[in-house]
User: Which sequence fits this backbone?
């Protein structure tokens, strides 16, 4: 019988989110100023030509998009810092947060897992867990390297053990994209 384990699932590098918020905030400010002081037209890739007033509206639309992205970054930062989200591993199921904006966890019985996929790209690592209800992704940057390695080992071992006990064979590992 496995003991129940719980791992906090929140960003391990909030400074990157803060830097993104600052970048989009600065972009919004610069684009808003540009929209207010623009007196020239704009040519995009020699395909689209905008008059001075159309170019000003274009800059204002880009500023508004930057403000929206900045606000989304603030919401994501607050949720990742203050929401109590955990990955829970029990003898009967795996519980993983559905997404950064979702307050609910996906509860996945071990015998409903149909496949796993390890993904490594530019020093970032994820574990995709495919199950009869869909897919969840566990990200290393939300757990930390040691906890991610621990969760990965437990999930791989438990899924293979459950599937061999049910005569399904070892867990099918999907190839990395």
Assistant:
């Amino acid at each position: 019988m496995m003991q129940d384990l719980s791992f906090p699932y929140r960003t391990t590098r909030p400074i990157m989110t803060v830097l993104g918020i600052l970048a989009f905030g600065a972009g919004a400010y610069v684009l808003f100023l540009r929209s207010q002081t623009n007196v020239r037209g704009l040519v995009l890739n020699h395909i689209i030509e905008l008059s001075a007033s159309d170019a000003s509206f274009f800059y204002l639309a880009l500023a508004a998009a930057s403000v929206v992205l900045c606000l989304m970054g603030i919401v994501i930062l607050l949720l990742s810092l203050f929401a109590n989200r955990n990955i829970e591993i029990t003898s009967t199921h795996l519980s993983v947060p559905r997404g950064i904006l979702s307050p609910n966890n996906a509860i996945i019985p071990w015998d409903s897992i149909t496949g796993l996929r390890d993904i490594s790209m530019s020093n970032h690592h994820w574990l995709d867990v495919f199950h009869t209800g869909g897919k969840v992704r566990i990200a290393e940057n939300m757990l930390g390297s040691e906890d991610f390695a621990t969760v990965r080992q437990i999930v791989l071992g438990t899924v293979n053990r459950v599937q061999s006990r049910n005569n399904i064979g070892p867990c099918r590992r999907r190839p990395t994209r």
About this structure: The radius of gyration is 23 Å. Helices lie at 14-37, 52-82, 145-165. The chain has three helices and nine strands.
